[in-house]
Amino acid sequence: MEYGSITAAAGKYGAKILYNERIAKYTSFNIGGECDVIVFPNSAECIAEIVSLCRKDGIKYYIFGRCTNVLISDDGLRGVVVMIDGDFSSVRREGNCLICDAGASMTKICTEAKNEGLSGLEFAYGIPGSAGGCLYMNAGAFGGEMKDVVKYCDYLDTDGNIKRMENAKMQLSYRHSVFCGSGKVILSICYELTEGDKDQIAAKMNEIMTKRRDKQPLEYPSAGSTFKRPEGYFAGKLIEDSGLKGYRVGGAQVSEKHCGFVINRENAAFADVKKIIQDIKDRVLDDSGVELECELLVIE
């Protein structure tokens, strides 16, 4: 496969581009093989042109944010990986709203909200993903979700046009949005917040981060909660009740701190994580009759 047009477009915008690079170092799981091309776009226009060229030239492409909710094969990916991360991550205030590029991290956005005395995003402090990724899956924690604070977003449609979508049309539900599997690319997000006391906002953020550290295995690479919450149950408790706390397959392990997390305990391979996920699903179904649904995007 020739990538001359992609190279030229990246150069035109001054965007970073890498060839034959292992993607593991860019994922929260620290798993993933060599990719043909990884582009780190630095503007909406750059994203639009790269995606347009891939479509025109028949090049397979992948859109990722901070890769905190994906499991990527050790075989790597053929084609172009468009990594929307820190190179496209500006945050600015307009009234009581924050307008954020899709690559901005939630930690950066929450910190900026606190500094501006804007409340509403405290629940998201410590979520490891990017603004785009969190909206894509309607990320949530501690009683809040993206659907509660997002006013609108700008996105690239399947014809290459940049458009705006209001919250009401996003079909935001548990770990789902209209963007899932649609081919649309989220470019920026507007969060509508309320004025608050900076000290109270900071205190709430610190309280939430303390809970995360106490309850979640943040000391190990993972992709966060491995399974969606089954209606009427908690995935972690079902897994623990099935006797799988600490269960290992190769370098992958069910966290002893929180059974809802599969962690990369020691140089886990893609196959290790895939098998442990399947083993968990099989055991929980046998023991409780509940079918767990994986929350991760598995790409191979």
Short synopsis of the structure:
The chain has helices at residues 4-13, 44-57, 106-115, 131-136, 198-215, 235-241, 270-288, and strands at residues 16-22, 34-40, 61-64, 70-72, 77-83, 91-94, 97-101, 118-119, 140-141, 144-145, 150-156, 162-166, 185-192, 194-195, 222-225, 248-249, 252-254, 261-264, 297-299.
What does this structure look like?
There is one protein chain. The protein has 300 residues and is α+β, with helices and mostly antiparallel strands. The chain folds into three domains: 4-83, Uridine Diphospho-n-acetylenolpyruvylglucosamine Reductase, domain 2 (2-Layer Sandwich); 91-213, Uridine Diphospho-n-acetylenolpyruvylglucosamine Reductase, domain 3, CATH 3.30.465; 219-299, UDP-N-acetylenolpyruvoylglucosamine reductase, C-terminal domain (Uridine Diphospho-n-acetylenolpyruvylglucosamine Reductase, domain 1, Alpha-Beta Complex), CATH 3.90.78.10. Helix content is 28%, strand content 27%. It contains seven helices and 19 strands. It has helices at residues 4-13, 44-57, 106-115, 131-136, 198-215, 235-241, 270-288; strands at residues 16-22, 34-40, 61-64, 70-72, 77-83, 91-94, 97-101, 118-119, 140-141, 144-145, 150-156, 162-166, 185-192, 194-195, 222-225, 248-249, 252-254, 261-264, 297-299. The strands form six sheets. It has a five-stranded antiparallel sheet with strand order 6-7-13-11-12. A four-stranded mixed sheet has the order 1-2-5-3. β9 (140-141) and β10 form a beta hairpin. The chain is globular, with a radius of gyration of 19 Å. The mean pLDDT is 97.
